[in-house]
Amino acid sequence: MGMADGGGAGSLTPLDAAAFVAELAVYAAVARWGWSLPLRGLRPRRPWRTPVRLLLACAAVVGLAVLWGWFAAPTADRPLHGAARVVFEVCWFGAGAAAALHTYLRRGRAV
Fold it and tell me: In 10 A of CB 5, how many CB atoms?
């Protein structure tokens, strides 16, 4: 019985740990994606360029964290079950994969 099954902290399984690491990887991918979004029209040396990028990165992470907390966390307010849970997780982890792919593909271009 793992954390997803409502077990206590002592019942953490390797699958629970792997799921948590995958969740952190999604947060890292969307943060990097938010940071790397092109800020068209902004000159590179403008003093507010870095705060805007930081805001975009934080907003992306917070948005996904709120969704995860509402619907998929072990202590979720509105937990999803069955097919709805599967669709949510596919979309949620897919968003992380899409963010990582977009960032990778933009790597060769000026940011």
Answer: 10
Contacts of 57 (CB under 8 A, 6+ apart): 30, 31, 32, 33, 34, 35
CA distance 73 to 66: 10
Residue type, 78: R
Residue written as token pair 């938010």: 34
- What predicted TM-score, i.e. pTM, was given to this entire model? 0.79
Q: What is the pLDDT of residues 66-95, one digit of tens each?
A: 999 999 988 998 999 999 999 999 999 999
The CA-based angle 35-94-50, given to 5 degrees, is 5
Chain position carrying tokens 């705060």: 51
